[in-house]
Amino acid sequence: MPIIIADIMSTRVVTVEMDDRLTVAKEIFDQASFHHLLVVDEYQLEGVLSERDLLRAISPNLGSSAETARDLETLQKRVHQVMTRNPLTVAPYINLDTATRILLDNDIGCLPVLEDGKLVGIVTWKDLLRAYCEYRAQNQSEC
Question: Residues of the signal sequence (predicted)?
């Protein structure tokens, strides 16, 4: 029986609003162990903000002795200015192979999971790799 996304996705998603400032996203990433935030507007998925997107958008001098007021201003940008719009998504019943192919073919790190247009989860490349290793372990071959 093939593994489907519903079996491995994270259902506890963290979202930010499009008009939130990057300071909000930075605080979340600084406290969390994940690297993607889903961007919503009135509960509709609008984009994805990765930690990498955030780091590209803010000054590398933040928190250093070289930090200036101009560096701090980079944190005042809005999420919608930096996010990836119209992200690729999958349904919870999509199989592991299909989701993996989408990630690899598009060089992305996560897929929001939508069911009937409603955000129900997120699956990342780490989730896919973990599922692969668990499958291999169950079939008694090393990962």
Answer: none
Distance CA(15)–CA(39), nearest Å, equals 6
Please say if the pLDDT value at position 143 is more than 80.
Answer: no
31 pLDDT higher than 70: yes
Tokens of 8: 């491995």
Report the distance separating Cα 47 and Cα 68, nearest Å: 30
Work out whether strand 110-115 and strand 36-41 pair parallel, antiparallel, or are unpaired: unpaired
For strands 118-124 and 110-115, give the pairing: antiparallel
Reported confidence tier of residue 132, pLDDT bands at 50, 70, 90: confident
Q: What is the spatial distance between Cα 110 and Cα 129, in angstroms, rounded to a whole number?
A: 12
Question: Nearest Cα to 107, choosing from 80, 133, 130, 84?
Answer: 84
Separation CA 108–CA 59 (nearest Å): 23
